[in-house]
Design a protein that fits this description.
alpha/beta, TIM Barrel, 2 domains, eight-stranded parallel barrel, five-stranded mixed β-sheet, 15 strands
Length: about 375
Amino acid sequence: MSKLRSTRKIRIGCLHIGGDAPVAVQSMAATQTQNLEATARQIEVLQQAGADVIRIAVDSDADVEALKTLRKQFPDPVLSVDLQENYKLAPKVAPLVDKIRYNPGHLFHLEKDKPIREKVGFIIDAARTHGCAIRIGVNCGSVDPDYKKKYRNNPIEGMVRCAVDHCQILDELKFEDYCVSLKDSDSGKVIEANRQFASERPDVPLHLGVTEAGLPPDGIIKTRIAFEQLISSGIGDTIRVSLTLPNEDKGQEIVVGREILKDIEEGRFRSVPENFLDGLNIIACPSCSRVENDKFVELAQEVRTMARYAEKHKITIAVMGCRVNGPGETDDADLGLWCGPSRVNLKKGTETLGSFAYEEILGRLKKELDLIIVEQEKKSIKLQ
C-alpha cells in the first residue's frame, strides 16, 4: 500500500487529482497538431487505452485552429494543452481545454523585456477566466537560464527553486488549481527533485514522469524505479510514462502506467541491480508535435540495435526528436543526436560535431562511440 498523499485536491475539467483522488494516468499526442487526421487518431488511441488526460501541443495560431476542430470532434476527453514557447496563445486555447501546461524555461525566450511574473499573470488570467487548471512544468533540459546560471553546480536545486518560486507567484495571484512537474531523464534525479519539492510544498499536487525514458523495456524500468520510490511514499498525483513508440502504440504508455500503479498498490515492487544503469544508457524522447520527421522513432530503435556491442561501457547516448529541446537536453550525454526535417545533428557533450543525413548518421555515431570506448579503455589501463 502507498502512503497517503497530503496534497490538496484540484480540478481539471471533470477530473480531480491530489488528496484522496486516484492517481491519474495521462499521455501526449505525438503528432503535429495541424495534421488533423493523425492527431485525431492519436486521441482515439489514447482514449481507447483509458487515458485520464490527453495533452496536445500548441505553438501557433494554426495549431489553435486545429485544436478548435479537434475539440469539436472530441468534446468529452479531459484535454491539456502544452503552450511550448508561445505563452501569448493562452487566451485562445483556454476556452478549448481543461488544463494549460507552461514551462518556466520557455517563458524566458518570448518578449524578453517583460518580467516573468507578468507573463505568468497573463496565463493565469486566461486560465481563471475559462476554468482551466495549470501545470508548472520544469524540465532538466530547459531550465530557466537565470536558475541554470545561479545553480550551475547543483541543477536539481535549480529545478526545485524554480518550481517553488513559480508556486509562490501563483499563490500570490490567488490561483489554486495548479500542479507541478520536475522531470529528468535520470530516475535518481527525478526521485531527488520530487522528494525535495514535496518536503517544501507538501500541499501542491505533483505530476510525475521520467522525461525521455526511451525505448521499452529500459524506458519502462527507468520509469518504474522513480514511480515505485515516490508513489509508495505518498508523492505523486498524476503520472506520464514517456516512451519512444510508434504512434499507433502510444496507448502502451497508459497501459504501462496503470500496471505500475497496480503493482505499487498491491505491494509488488520490481527490484533492479544497483548497477542497472552503470553500462550503456540510451535516452530517447517520447515524440510529440515538435518532431519534424517520423524517422526519429525508427532512428532511436536503430541506435539501440547498433550500440548493443557497447552495453558494458558507461556511456550515455541521447536521441531527441526536435530542435526545441533537443540541443539542451543532449548536453549531459556523451553523444547526443537531435533530429531535424532532413538531417540529424550530432553532439559530443556540449560540442557540436556536425549535421548528417538520416542515412549516414549511424555510421558517424558508431565512429564516435568507438572513439569514446578507446578513451575509456586507455584510462582504465592507466588506473591499473
